[in-house]
Specification:
110 residues; alpha+beta; four-stranded mixed sheet; three-stranded antiparallel sheet; 1 helix
Length: 110
């Protein structure tokens, strides 16, 4: 093999390695996390942070929980402690509220 081909192959391998690392790193905080039922929270791409302004903690008398975007309701007892003091959600997008696998809140049990 010529030196040019070796250089191109090596450069390609480095680019592929860098791209794979940069995509995996943000998801690493979800690795190994399980919901209260013992199921893995993340299937590789269904978890993401939620800005705090999109989440509201409500106490409606008989229940306490979180409203997310005024659309998803999460009972307080389903919330898990956040790994980084931010809100996060892991869900299957096509299942609506029923598809929420894990919800992380910075202040669980208030």
């Amino acid at each position: 093999m010529s030196k040019e081909l070796i250089f191109i192959a090596l450069a390609f391998a480095v680019v592929v390695w860098i791209l794979s690392c940069s995509q995996a790193a943000p998801h690493d905080i979800y690795t190994g996390l399980k919901n209260r039922g013992g199921y893995d929270c993340c299937g590789g791409e269904n978890c993401r942070p939620i800005p705090a302004e999109r989440v509201r903690l409500y106490d409606i008398g008989v229940k306490r929980g979180y409203w997310i975007d005024g659309y998803f309701w999460i009972d307080e007892d389903r919330a898990l402690p956040s790994p980084d003091s931010q809100f996060h959600i892991c869900r299957m997008d096509h299942w609506g509220s029923a598809g929420i696998i894990c919800f992380f809140a910075p202040y669980v049990g208030l």
